[in-house]
Design brief:
By secondary structure, this protein is mainly beta. The protein is globular, with a radius of gyration of 23 Å. It has a domain of about 40 residues. The strands form three sheets. It has a seven-stranded antiparallel sheet, with no helix packed on it. The chain starts with a helix and ends with a strand. Helices cover about 10% and strands about 45% of the residues.
Amino acid sequence: MMYKSYFFLLLILLASINTAEAQKRDRRFRGKPVVVVKPRPGLRPARVVVTPRPRTLSRLPNTARRIVFRNTTYHVVNGVYYVPRRGNFVRIVPRPGLRVATLPASVFRFTLRGTAMIYFQGVYYRTVENGYEVIAPPLGATIPELPDDAEMVEIDGRIYYEHNKALYQLIQTPEGDAYEVIGQLDE
């Protein structure tokens, strides 16, 4: 009979506890596969990288623009570049040197070492005659956010982010969190 009393008391005690703690999840990396990435020379190998799936489209909207550059056909949808792969269109960052006449209205404009630059969805541009030219991510550039398909990497025990072979570090600015280009990863 005494065991039944203790059991009943334990049930009442457990039923009265209604708080729970859970770990906070980062939405960008939930349920993604893990792979290893090579770091740039001089750094120890990266241990873990969370690799999001590339964004794909099964078909292009009517508003897509077609651009051919260095034997690659790009389809531009709202400033984001896609290439055909296995019956779908996969999101990609174009090679430096590609030129476009217009950019979306929501680009991020900044100045680095006296040079005006533009950033949109993982692609950096500079102004040229009659348009804009894609450039490699400039060292020291600070942007307010990374694309959703950026990868989190750990190098020498520190967390960085990689997108299009550019390595970013999370920094604090007066406006809040930002990401600074600190290097390039080698293949």
